[in-house]
Amino acid sequence: IAGLIVGGVHESPFPFTDVVTTTTHKSLRGPRGAIVMCRKEDRLHDLYHPDTEKDMAQLIDSAVFPGLQGGPHDHITAAKAVAFSEAMKPEFKVYADQIVRNAKALADELMAQGVKLVTDGTDNHLMVIDMRPSGLTGKGRQLQSAMDEAGITLNRNSVPFDEARPFNPSGLRLGTPAVTTRGMKEGEMGVIARCIARVLGDYKDKSALEKTRQEILELVSGFPLYPDFTVLE
Q: Does pTM top 0.70 for this prediction?
């Protein structure tokens, strides 16, 4: 959720905590990795580590290297710097705001299609489909596979009070950062929601999955990842 916080559309945890960790991929759109942040003021020194002159930031740094990390991946460090630079631009705030708008639109259309969401909506970038009311308890693995065949990427996820095993749960988790990065907006979320609902209803029907896949391919063809890049044949 770090990207939404940086973009100003979600509350920051720092008024309430001294240390924050987050991944640098996902909504921040950086390389796969993580960061640890802490307050400049070490309010916990006398309580937790009075026997050292190091403050919290220095203790965290030494715990990471040489404590836990081996050779640093300098290419990842450089990629993080680029991602953080992009996150400081005004365009990133527009991106973060659109992520939430898209998520709300996607959630609303899913519910309009009769799909149950765990929270009956969303106020961030994520939502979890509860498949139990649709008679799909413990079908997470099968539905994730069917969605893959239909060109829709999401992952199976447990839901509250799920009696199914975690490896084949009763929920599906999905979010909107990737489609937002491609330039999609609320209108496209309606198309995606209807495709998801169709797969939920016909996940065993290979022809229905292929039809949905073709619809998804047509949709994404209008939002290329690299519009100025031509692959040499």
A: yes
